[in-house]
Amino acid sequence: MDKSFTERRRRELLVAASLTVVAALVPLFIKNPNVQNIMILTLMFGALSQSWNILSGYCGQISLGHALYFGLGAYTTTLLFTKFGVPPWFGMLAGGAISALIAMALGYPCFRLGGHYFAIATIVIAEIGLLLIQNWEWAGAALGIEMPVRGDSWLKFQFARSKLPYFYFALALACIAWFVTWLLEDSKWGYWWRAVKDNPDAAQSLGVVVFDSKMGAAAVSAFLVAIGGSFYAMYVSYIDPGSVMGFQFSLLMALPAVLGGIGTLWGPLLGAIILIPLTELTRSYIGGSGRGVDLIVYGTLIVVIALARPEGLIGLFSRRKGATR
Amino acid sequence: MTALLETRGVWQRFGGLVANSDVSISVGRGEIVGLIGPNGAGKSTLFNLIAGVLPPTQGTIWFDGEDVTNMPAAERCQRGVGRTFQVVKSFETMTVIDNVIVGALVRNTVMREARRKAHEVLEFTGLAARADVLASDLVPAEKRRLEVARALATEPKLLLLDEVLTGLTPTEAQTGVALVRKVRETGVTVLMVEHVMEIVMPLVDRAIVLDLGKVLVEGKPTDVVRDPKVISAYLGDRHAVGA
Amino acid sequence: MGLLYGLIAVGLALIFGLMDVVNFAHGEFLMLAMYVTFFLFTFFAIDPLLSAPLAAAALFVLGAVVYLVIVRFAMRAKANVGMVQIFATFGLAIVMRGLAQLFFTADYRSVPNSWLGGKTVSVAGIFLPQPQLFGALVAIAAFGGLYLFINRTDFGRALEATREDPGAVALVGIDKNRVFALGWGLGAALVGLAGAIMASFFYIYPDVGASFALIAYVTVALGGFGSVFGAFAGGIIVGLVEATTALVLPPSLKSVGIYAVYLLVVFVRPRGLFGSM
Fold first, then answer.
1. CB 3.0–4.6 Å: which of A287, B88, B209, C162 could bond B143 by disulfide?
2. What is the pTM of this model?
């Protein structure tokens, strides 16, 4: 009786698999390091935005402080590596776990807040985190901290000569974030989250434990974002509080999902594919003069898309295909 | 066997306002009970107390032999209390089937089973043809039915209906009445709040009339409608001044 | 300082209270007002004190235009109204910052030797910097004026009524868009006033707004969204907390106190100090 549903799910998997294969082949032909860099960032922001989307898009709890979890991931990995020699692979998991725990601890008081009060609380908490790290001498304070380069190694996930390993890792990250979302979409959690977003009272009357749903979403979301942060730290091998934990970064993480389609499976990736190359290109071609034209172009684009396509660019696709989402 | 639902001496005060005073009612298994009364009689408050939206100021609520007075709504739903809302609260961005699946997940942890259950309920409530439509695209009467479908998907022992028949056209109301009867045939107990007596009286086994927060009369619908106290409460002559 | 925060925040609170929109370009409005003051001073030698009304007027126009050109459309969105508003105004903020960089360059500017700048005045043995003191006076005057304006004038009542029920006011012949546009103008004008005063004792650069905007959001939320009085009180609290924190913590951590107080307040009162709803 549910053929169309099962078919749709299968088709989604198939599309994702083909896209992954195509994406995996691209860097074999395009060797320009600048282009590869843009592709890596695109995949990374796609993954981050997809993770943000779990809490803010599906569960409807708009967080504008996700940079906190990104920073936690980046710092945990870097500090464990530089201070204790722990390989980044473990640091990554540790960062994810710490972020998830902190997200739940913060969620405990925060999820009682509604709407704007919640959003501002998330900003404020991330700002506090930023200020604390900026004043934490051991962690490099405001200057940040550098990953010592010790030659190419899979264990340490350092590669000086080639961007390819980073690319494939970013691709894996995007795939994981997508796949987790895909799995959750057709799970009790996925349904609970959307119900909580649409109408918490009604959700409660149908046996949905609203508080638990939000906590679950926060934990998954923070975990994945922290993994992204760890990756970023390894990729750029230098982090400072302002660039990984600032408010701007929280917004950058949210933007692809919002532009692509908030609370949708494909929205974040679509948004990232359009937005990140555009950002990087305007920055490198127009912004080189340092005169702000890149900001003007970028800002205008955001305004125009937000106004013209409030449901996100994904709306362009689903209407044509007649899909429900 | 004890009653399925019982309220014992329930009071609810909002500041200085007393919405329910010393309300003790009971609903037996398999009954259809109508909770009626004029505007401001405290029906909705009592309804919310039973559904678990807020705990009463005083008194206890028993469901299925268990004290549920301080149990949150979600847990009561797991025990078998399903409800609808007077002002419909559909999950607007979700499809009809997805709305119902949320309810079905209470009893079915496996997605495939929850989905099958949801389809069953949609067949039962006559919404099957609208399964893939967004809830926001339904017409008002369909939204009401979706409320009932969602609650039924939780497989309740007691179904609380909050003015599901109010504001419908006569034809729609007829369909609604038929649906409630069908629900009872499956063994579900129904407690329905209605403002307009004419709609519910032919449907219910027993009617409880609330007025000014208290139980005024209870009994067979045919007796209740003839009761002078009920008539005066509805006409309002007794309370026209100073109430 | 608290009163100035209050002044910045009141503009935001007014806009929010009127139509449930958080203006994420509020800090950029402030930045622009500071530049206006700066240029009036540099080219026409008009002291910030005198140019304050001019800056307010310029910002009034800007606010109204922003509403008519952007926000009006953002509010029509059927889906995700909240997100559309956030990102439409956020996008605007980026554009404004870019424009500032383009035309004013990223250099730090300041208004030297204004009538008030750098001078202090001794009140009962305590030395207070004149600009801040003057700012406080202007802020109090602005609050008083705003209070009278909302409660005593026809437009104030129209504003209030439109906020209660936009549909109903249309029936009595009030143009919703006109009222909203004026509301935005008024909110922006208040920031304009604050910006003009602050120009005399703060460096002016394209990103200056961001640091104040966050404090403004916190101030508004602290008082309770939509409550103009709350924003005023919130501003005073934020100012006091900031001063107190500065005594115990290093300067780089001074905002932590403000943020912590916000969190404490909303955890106890989820709708802010004076919020209703």
1. B88
2. 0.84
